[in-house]
Amino acid sequence: MLITAMESIASSLKQNAIIPDVIKIFIDEVVDEFVPEALLDITYDGKKVELGNKFTTAETNKAPKVNFAHSGSDTDNKSRFTLMMVDPDAPSRKQPDCREWRHWVVGNIPSDGNLSEATNLDSYQGPSPPQGSGHHRYVFLLYRQQDTHVYPQLDNEKRNNFKARQFAEQYGLKLISANFFECECV
C-alpha cells in the first residue's frame, strides 16, 4: 500500500508538470527519478490537499496542519525536516516570470512533525493568484535535513523568484516528499 502511494505521488507530480517545473531531476544531464520516501499530509480546516485538488483563496488563507510519515531510519528521533510551499505559476502559468513565489518555509521540524518546535523562516502567505491568471499550482516540498540548521530569516518582502532547489542544495537538504493543490482567483 505504501509503495503504491509513493508511486502515485511521483506519477501525479509528472502529470501536472511539478516535475520539471519545480522538482528538477537532472543530475549532470542524466535523468534521476524522484522516489518519495514520505507521505505528506496537508490539511486546511479539515480539507486535505490531495495531489492537485482545488481550493479557494478563502480556504487557504491560514497556515495548514502538516503531518508526515517517513520511511527513514530515525530510531533516536533526531532527524529534522524542512517544509517549503511555492507557487511555480506566478504571475501566471503561461508567463511564470516570478517562478517560484515563496509562500512558506519552515525548518528544523522534528521527526514527530511538531511545527511549534520548528523554525519559521518566513510567515505563511496564503495563495493570492491575480484575477484572470488561471489555476496556480501550490506545491509543498518536504526535505530531510542532515542536521539542525541555523537558517537565515527570509525577506518577507522578496518572495518572487525563490528557487527551492537552490535553497535545498545550499543547506544539504534531500527532497523526500511533495504534495500540491490548485487555486484560482474567481
Automatic annotation (TrEMBL):
Pfam families noted in UniProt: PBP
Source organism, top-level taxon: Eukaryota
Xref: InterPro entries: PEBP, PEBP-like_sf, PEBP_euk
Gene3D superfamilies found in the cross-reference section: PEBP-like
SUPFAM superfamilies in UniProt: PEBP-like
CDD domains: PEBP_euk (cd00866)
Alphabetized PANTHER family for the sequence: PHOSPHATIDYLETHANOLAMINE-BINDING PROTEIN, PHOSPHATIDYLETHANOLAMINE-BINDING PROTEIN 4
Protein name: Phosphatidylethanolamine-binding protein
